[in-house]
Amino acid sequence: QVQLVESGGGLVQAGGSLKLACAASGRNFESYAMGWFRQGPGNDREFVAAISWTGATTYYADSVKGRFAISREDAKNTVYLQMNSLKPEDTAVYYCAAPQDLFVAPGSRREEYGTWGQGTQVTVSS
């Protein structure tokens, strides 16, 4: 099991960029697929992006495809979310997550993930 801590959130104008980081502690980070989710005001938590444990495969929600990029740096036990061309509708608390098991394919459903960080707030002003 890993423990997750997000950072990098903040206030940015529409069209701007932010890079979120999720630092993991614990064992076997390099063997976990990782995901990013977000929860906006009054909304359910929704899938944003995921990356395989090898880093070779990535998945994105349609709403962020072409604007966001997920990556990982196993030497630092960290997964990143680069967010470009931000829109007010991207305003949300962003969470990183890891599945319960090692070596599973990255998924887009909340129930596929068993470990969550505390979240970091991203606010995009118009």
Architecture blueprint of SSEs:
Layout: E1 2-7, E2 10-13, E3 18-26, E4 34-39, E5 46-51, E6 58-60, E7 68-73, E8 78-83, E9 92-98, E10 115-116, E11 120-125
Parallel strand pairs: 2-11
Antiparallel strand pairs: 1-3, 3-8, 4-5, 4-9, 5-6, 7-8, 9-10, 9-11
Give an overview of the whole structure.
- With 126 residues, the chain is mainly β.
- Helices cover 0% and strands 48% of the residues.
- It is built from no helices and eleven strands.
- The protein has strands spanning 2-7, 10-13, 18-26, 34-39, 46-51, 58-60, 68-73, 78-83, 92-98, 115-116, 120-125.
- Strands 2, 4, 5, 6, 9, 10 and 11 form a seven-stranded mixed sheet that branches. A four-stranded antiparallel sheet has the order 1-3-8-7, with no helix packed on it.
- A hairpin with a 6-residue loop joins strand 4 (34-39) and strand 5.
- It is globular, with a radius of gyration of 13 Å.
- The termini are far apart.
